[in-house]
Amino acid sequence: MKEEEETAVKKSADAPPSLRRSRVRSEIVMYLYSKYPKVSHPEEVSRDTGIDLKNVLWGLRGNGGWFKESDALLKQGVVEQVEHGGSTYYRLAERGKSMIESMHKSQARIKR
């Protein structure tokens, strides 16, 4: 993810606090935004972002520890889970897409 996009997520009032606090969740969201509306497998997200697979899964679903389930991207409604052919894929939900687009508009206004 571009550094300015990560900063935009962290500063955005539109982003949930759990997203602003986590580089992993921020990068997952921006990656899924770049693929929208296509689905992505967690291994693909891990490979393309350089984030360890278990951290990708914890960011998406939570783990009950450092990555609380209540802060998980799925629980926040930012990402949706899609089952296909016995595998689980993830896609940015409409809420997540709207949030990113709102942040981009805010950043564009600030730069003017």
Secondary-structure class: mainly alpha
Tally the beta strands. Answer: 2
CATH class descriptor: Mainly Alpha
The pLDDT mean sits at 85
**Architecture (CATH level 2) name:** Orthogonal Bundle
Instruction: Tell me the CATH topology.
Output: Arc Repressor Mutant, subunit A
The strands making up the biggest β-sheet line up spatially as 1-2
Q: Could you estimate the helical fraction of the residues in percent?
A: 55-70%
| Subunit organisation of the chains | single chain
Task: Report the uncertain regions.
Answer: none
What is the total domain count?
1
Number of helical regions: 7
Q: From the alpha-carbon coordinates, what is the Rg to the nearest angstrom?
A: 13 Å
Strand content: 5-15%
Outline the biggest β-sheet. 2 strands, antiparallel
Write the layout of secondary structure elements.
Blueprint: H1 3-11, H2 17-20, H3 23-35, H4 42-49, H5 53-61, H6 73-76, E1 79-84, E2 87-92, H7 94-111
Antiparallel strand pairs: 1-2
Description:
With 112 residues, the chain is mostly helical. It has a single domain (3-111), classed as Orthogonal Bundle (Arc Repressor Mutant, subunit A), CATH 1.10.10.10. It is 58% helix and 11% strand. It is built from seven helices and two strands; from the N terminus they run ααααααββα. It has a two-stranded antiparallel sheet. It is globular, with a radius of gyration of 13 Å.
Describe the structure concisely.
With 112 residues, the protein is mainly alpha-helical. The chain has helices spanning 3-11, 17-20, 23-35, 42-49, 53-61, 73-76, 94-111, and strands at residues 79-84, 87-92.
